[in-house]
Amino acid sequence: MLPDSLQSTTQDTANTVYDVAVFVPLHTTFSYLGPANVRAGTRVRVPFGHRECTGIVLDETNAPADVTLKPFIDIPDTEPLLPADSLALGHWLSRYYHAPLGDCMELLLPALARQGTALPAPKPRLVVRLTHKGRAIAAQQLTGKKRQALVSALHSQGDIPQAELKALNISLATARSLERDELVQIQPEVQPVAAQPSANTLSLTTAQADILGHLLALPDTAEPQVLLGATGSGKTEIYIEWCRTTLQAGQQCLVLLPEIGLTPQMISRFSARLGMTVAQLHSGMSDLARLRVWQGLQDGTVRLVLGTRSAVLAPFHNLGLIIVDEEHDGSYKQHDGVRYHARDVAIWRAHQQGCPILLGSATPSLETLANAERGRYNLHTLLRRADQGEVARSLVDITRHATTTGLSNPLVERITDHLQQGQQVMLFLNRRGMAPSMVCTACGTIQQCPNCSAYVTYHQRPARLLCHHCGWSHRPPYPCESCHATTLEPLGIGTAGLEEQLRAHWPDVALWRIDRDNIKHADDWATINAEIHSGKAGILLGTQLLAKGHDYPNVTLTGIVDADSGLFSADFRSYERMAQLLTQVSGRAGRRSARAEVIVQTRLPDHPLFHQFLRTDYFTMATQLLHDRQQVGMPPFSFLATVRADHVEEEQAAQFLSDLGNTLALPLAVTGLGPMPALMSKRAGLYRQLWLLRSTERKTLHAVLEQIIAHCAQHRPPSGISWGIDVDPYEF
DNA sequence: ACTCTTACGAGT
DNA sequence: CTCGTAAGAGTA
Fold first, then answer.
1. Which of residues 649-668 of A touch strand C (CB under 7 A)?
2. Residue A31 beta carbon within 7 A of nucleic strand C
3. Model-wide pTM > 0.85
């Protein structure tokens, strides 16, 4: 049955035909009948086969001749939820990433709007101001029960209940001393006032001021700007000042960060400097909190937002600046669903909005550097501050120095030395590769996850075998997969294992472990950071998290416990990532010290990348790597896409892809590689095969992808196959 | 993705 | 002959 809102109209006047992006993973849109003047971007509930789905109205269209159209079931909103800009973004995402339009449009909506139900109304707000002799002494927003209690207290002309005074932080004595009629003013349903940045300006160095001056003078149509600045060179000050100018011009700013862990620190820096509230958007927030920010951005009441990947998909009222911090970071790439890259989406959005965009990094991606070299992007270099000492870099060959504990003697000596001088030491452990895996002491088999082709890892507290890829877990004892003996022991060393060794070696020294098991919330960061920043001697032990963003000014020695694992990868980006990691980790140390050092433990001391690391800077390493990329014709000197197939039988997945390859006549510009097993060839019980497409022309590659989609629409893949396309892939 | 339809083998 | 699972097809 139709709801009342449509009852009167639908039967007689539902005669306008609309094209709808239904939220199903199909590469087609569907036409429906609806009342006149339903605008593009409006959500609709529609009949779809034997069920009901939600979709987004795209356009008025002509009735297709061969089908009988059905009318909308419901129109949950009176206004379009997606503005024209978002619709254009959805269309672009669908075209560029070859994802179904319905999936792309759904992605642009906050989670609470995806089900097609009416959105929760904003809570009524009541601002209470207490004034005394015309002077404001307190103000507070009240909602819910407290609001009710206060309103009825005022209406009955009685005294304000004590509880309310407590809520307002006012003592009873203070209240009694006030004259009744000037005690309370009520301003119901007040809109939050759009915050204005205060004039709390920073003093910039000459180098920072020069670059900022350049940026502020740019026309809106300028090419993307790149800020190459070593850690501690002061990129953030430039971000903040550019935002200030943009906000003062009445426009909104979007700042993208790679990790949720980095947002609290950045938020406090931005809000302190700009003297205004800064909104955030990341996966750690509730759906409702995200919806409120999303709505605030759309209506323009939220002026500045810091967020992770998905924040680039939010609607804006008048976006005036986008900043992508740590633009090289791989976590900007989405690894399931619509596999978009937030940095690339940001560049498209800036172009579409006609607003400037800044990509900042100490270690820019080779793609970005190549664009700068070609003159498509404009590169600014911010050097390390003169008052910061150089960092001495050295290698330790761990094939020549015994490492029973994972630490070589030279590293142990240096750690002791730095600790004795009252300084902090940071040990970086790349968890991948040197995995805390389980080995059977009876037969030597390294244990694999029963569902995946990955090795299981061992966690000590609580004692468990875990698969990081599918979540499988088992409590020891666990029978060896090969000989069923229960004599498994951890192989190599993980953070937990190394932690034990460190405690044994330096029992009286403070030890801070920083990894994802340990730090889940902003509060955890705050506590641990406060202690570290107090400056007392100690050891910081951590994984990737340590390499990102946070500054530890009292660290004078950084040790990379095992640098080699990153070099064994089949991935063409592994050297680039390694160069970035080495540079980022080194940058964490010695911000104030003249004699800071970095020690890298490796089995491959002759590797050219390590040689360069000892002698040159990131830019030189990256230039060399870019040259190597050109030789092998990999991105940014070619364009890649993968076709992925998952199936319970590895052979079936491979067969599907090779059949696909055989039916397509690839143009000259495009070469197909594979099918081959994915790097993680089996996950969560499914085998994954990949077919890699490489092209010298983006256009030709996209035409091939179109062909694949058309082919699969016509000849449905065998059941049990799940397949998909990944444009500009990061995982193989 | 979801749901309904059809196909075919084991069990009565 | 019926029930249960698996593969197939359509969604406006």
1. none
2. yes
3. yes
